[in-house]
Specification:
5-stranded mixed sheet; 3-stranded antiparallel sheet
Length: about 300
């Protein structure tokens, strides 16, 4: 029942990844090496006394006596899709700058559009960043944007009334450390307590925070060195370094990704698309193959999809 520990594969291109994992067992071995890099453990009780069957796919806990596969306790659990197809989906999602639509993924890996849609949403869920080891510090840019179609283009039953602008759209806040990480999230409204509460929870006190003139940022100077540019007066840069151009470039990229790739986006799933874009942005400095392995590492600690939708 004992087998040698599998090794993590290294690859820098899609063709190399397929050569490294020519069959389902090699993909299972690769994920096993990533998930159990610190040693095998039972996903049911956490015990480290684990027996491995000769088939390379089945394991048994020496404590709770339950059998399991390496997929149990991850987003891959209860999925009939092979790990090799999952690896392909991860490559396409993490290495295409605009992501990939479910219709295209379905064609590329040979599954139905519905299956591809669920695969992508599981991966977007896995890509979320729940917390940072330490707050963002240094030079920070913060900005809000609105995501959603124009009121005049909506069906009459979907219109919320009021003037154009942010009416009826989802509100997204972005916080960017220059030359560092990005944090994004949705807000119920632009009240100062919501906007500044999000900033206070992520940015270290004393940091330099740059925003536009929106009233929701009034009061940030109590905790940070706060600079603001007045966009409504045509001001976008002051003294060469005081601006929010970085986070605004992120919004331009996100809208190109979402609108250009997915065409229509349900507000219900907006946070998942933000997860995807934010994760890919924060992994921009690492190689393509390492992005695949980095997301695989995150999947190992995420809930199963049944728990996700419960």
């Amino acid at each position: 029942m004992e087998t040698s520990a599998p090794k993590k594969q290294q690859f820098t291109s899609l063709i190399q990844m397929m050569r490294a994992m020519p069959d389902e067992q090699s993909a299972i071995d690769h994920f096993t090496a990533i998930r159990w890099k610190h040693g095998a453990y039972c996903p049911h009780c956490g015990a480290t006394k684990v027996y491995h069957f000769k088939d390379g796919r089945t394991h048994k806990c020496g404590e709770c006596r339950k059998r399991f596969s390496i997929k149990v306790g991850t987003i891959f659990e209860d999925s009939k899709i092979g790990l090799r197809e999952w690896m392909l989906a991860i490559w396409l999602l993490t290495n295409h700058k605009k992501g990939i639509a479910s219709t295209q993924l379905a064609t590329d890996i040979g599954v139905t559009q519905k299956t591809a849609w669920f695969m992508l949403h599981r991966l977007r869920y896995a890509a979320q960043t729940k917390s940072f080891n330490r707050p963002l510090d240094g030079e920070i840019e913060a900005d809000e944007t609105f995501i959603g179609g124009k009121e005049k283009n909506k069906h009459a039953s979907k219109r919320t009334g009021g003037k154009q602008g942010g009416k009826g759209k989802a509100i997204v806040l972005g916080i960017l450390k220059r030359d560092g990480d990005l944090v994004t999230g949705t807000l119920p409204n632009l009240r100062a307590k919501n906007v500044q509460g999000a900033i206070n929870s992520i940015v270290a006190p004393g940091s330099t925070v740059m925003t536009d003139e929106h009233v929701s940022f009034n009061g940030l100077s109590d905790r940070f060195t706060h600079h603001r540019v007045n966009h409504s007066a045509g001001e976008y840069v002051r003294n060469y370094c005081l601006h929010t151009n970085g986070i605004e470039s992120v919004w331009a990229l996100f809208k190109r990704q979402v609108i250009g790739t997915h065409h229509w986006l349900s507000p219900k799933h907006l946070s998942r698309y933000l997860n995807e874009m934010t994760w890919r942005f924060n992994q921009r400095e690492i190689e393509a193959g390492e992005r695949v392995n980095a997301l695989l590492e995150q999947t190992a600690g995420r809930l199963t999809y049944k728990e996700l939708i419960a």
